[in-house]
Task: structure prediction
Amino acid sequence: MTATTRLHPPVRPERECDVSAPAELGDVARPLSPMERLVENAAVRRGLILVGVALVWEFYARWLESPLSFPTFLDTLEALQEGILSGVIPARLSVTLQTLVTGYFLGLVIAAVLTTVAVTTRIGTDLLSTFTAMFNPLPAIALLPLALLWFGLGRPSLVFVIVHSVLWAVALNMHSGFLSVSETLRMAGRTFGLKGLRFVFGILIPAAFPAILAGLKIGWAFAWRTLIAAELVFGVSSGQGGLGWYIFENRNTLNTASVFAGLLTVMAVGLLVEAVIFRIIEAKTVRRWGMQRG
Result:
């Protein structure tokens, strides 16, 4: 190689090549058809499931021909409409939701305190583990007689059984979530100087939030069904009957369509909370953080 070549290397001519996809590959990207968009929509799929359940309900009730034991779906909708327009169902539902919110959030606060003590001290861990093993298998409705003796016939008794149904499920999930946080994340937080509440809210809670959210869902489901069952047992709360008492009253008068309308309201509230409130929380947290698939 001469000195001239080393100083001035040869220049290669530039070439442009058009790259095209093979013909047998098909469309790499194409817009979805209206049918494919509907199939990909979770709300549409769930709506179709509900429509199918309603059709099966209607056909079975017409085949059974026993309105006293199993009314048709249309009769149930008519009773539901009548209860809503008369204001009875909204009033009863309002009483039930007020009691539910009070007991649910009180249970969350106590669960948060117990979990905080458990993750910071060894005696707190032993305390939470022992109490969870003792009280979590105990049905909340079984404590209703004691609640009536301690608090009387009123809202405090209902709040007590709701707190019991929420507390242990939420505390157990929160504690498991905190324990599952990897040591790498903990060391990363300490490296950035996070301590105390900053460490808890900056590292532990976001990392454990999938488990915490699961606990919130379980606690909500336990609280909702416990409250309806408690209202069915002794009915009124502070002089006002809730949704469970509405179902019980119509059962005594053999108004089966209204009983089904009350049950339909219970299920509708459950679907609304799950599909709206918890879905929004998931979208803003675990899905946004890439911790859960959509």
Observations:
- The two ends are 62 Å apart (CA to CA).
- Residues 35-65 form one domain.
